[in-house]
Automatic annotation (TrEMBL):
PANTHER family: INTERFERON-INDUCED PROTEIN 44 (PTHR14241), INTERFERON-INDUCED PROTEIN 44-RELATED (PTHR14241:SF1). Coiled coil: none annotated. Gene3D superfamilies: P-loop containing nucleotide triphosphate hydrolases. This is Interferon-induced protein 44-like. GO terms for biological process: immune response. InterPro entries: P-loop_NTPase. It comes from Labrus bergylta. It comes from the Eukaryota.
């Protein structure tokens, strides 16, 4: 559709016996699809009397260029801020061949802790799924409970084949809560770090484990102690963590630091928090929102960014995939590498 232009010539003056040059103004009304505007100019033409004469005509000027609206900024970076291996096979081979060099331990022990509903048990299942190539649900989870579903101190071994297990074990623990009388006691997490909590000890919310309790191990071996501490938090909850929960997380982290235990973090439920990742998991390290949450969590607890990992747990899937396995195995390898350094130092 062309542009319709309507012009008026407005001029003034008096009758003169001779032609007199008078000022002239020309205004144009431009009518475009969805747009109307005025333009004008002034000049001089010979005139002979006072008059306001509209001069009306139409012309087809063709399509007029218009400035396109500024597009909103992309929620994704052009390049990922962290690059993962293109294949999971190297990490799988590493895990299959790993054996602690310290002869005082049989397994590298990884303790998972964090707020209620963070996905700690789901992460254990996801690691086992990635290592075994089948989706498993051995560590029980609950999608509806508002309180911790894990009530006992449990150790999970992962089967490598019919005759052997991987040389890592996970310990799942009751979730932290803001209320002093709910969730795991911070003192119990500290005791677990030092190996004083026995298998299947049922956590109490009204007080920590004591030396007189049957669940207390007074003489733990190096194999019983924790070698890597991993904090698990939903990525969308980073900005919502209350001061009391953050204080508990920091207290546990400080206790681990005093013991020299390396600390990492897993931010879970990335697909629920970020539509770009939900539609394409390859946007995991391109998402500006997720990168911002990693930086915020690092500043909150003091964990270095290169020790914080974004992970999607297996939830609705019934088959494993390299797209989900890749971030999980990358994080697992870092846990093992740092835990191995700790054991060698010991």
């Amino acid at each position: 559709m062309g542009c319709m232009v309507v012009q008026w010539l407005a001029h003034g003056g008096s009758w003169f016996e001779s032609l007199l040059i008078r000022p002239l103004s020309v205004w144009s009304l431009h009518v475009l699809p969805g747009e109307v505007f005025l333009s004008g100019y002034s000049g001089f033409l010979p005139q002979s009397r006072d008059i306001n004469t509209p001069l009306l005509y139409f012309s087809d000027m063709g399509p007029q260029p218009s400035k396109p609206p500024t597009p909103p900024p992309s929620p994704c970076l052009r390049q990922p801020w962290r690059t993962l291996p293109t294949s999971t096979q190297d990490n799988l081979n590493f895990m299959k061949s790993y054996q602690p060099r310290n002869k005082g331990v049989k397994h590298l022990r990884i303790l998972l802790h964090g707020p209620v509903g963070a996905g700690k048990s789901s992460f254990v299942n996801s690691v086992e799924s990635a290592l075994r190539g089948i989706v498993t649900n051995r560590a029980l989870t609950d999608a509806t409970s508002g309180s911790s579903f894990t009530l006992k101190y449990q150790t999970y071994k992962i089967q490598k084949d019919h005759q052997s297990f991987y040389s890592i074990v996970f310990n799942d623990i009751m979730g932290l809560e803001a209320n002093l009388n709910n969730g795991v006691q911070v003192e119990d997490v500290k005791l677990a770090l030092r190996g004083h909590v026995r298998e299947d000890y049922k956590f109490r919310t009204n007080g920590p484990l004591t030396e007189n309790d049957p669940g207390y191990d007074s003489n733990p071996s190096l194999d019983d102690k924790v070698h890597v501490l991993v904090c698990v938090v939903p990525v969308s909850s980073v900005s919502l963590l209350g001061d009391k929960v953050v204080q508990k997380l920091r207290e546990v982290r400080l206790a681990a630091s005093d013991l020299g235990i390396p600390q990492l973090a897993i931010l879970t439920k990335v697909d629920q928090a970020c539509p770009e990742v939900r539609s394409n998991i390859h946007n995991l390290h391109k998402s500006k929102y997720l990168k911002g949450q990693v930086e915020k969590f690092s500043a909150m607890l003091g964990i270095p960014i290169n020790c914080i990992f974004l992970v999607k747990n297996y939830e609705s899937e019934i088959n494993t995939s390299d797209d989900i396995n890749g971030p999980i195995l990358t994080a697992l390898r870092q846990m093992v590498s740092q835990g191995e350094d700790y054991l060698n130092y010991m």
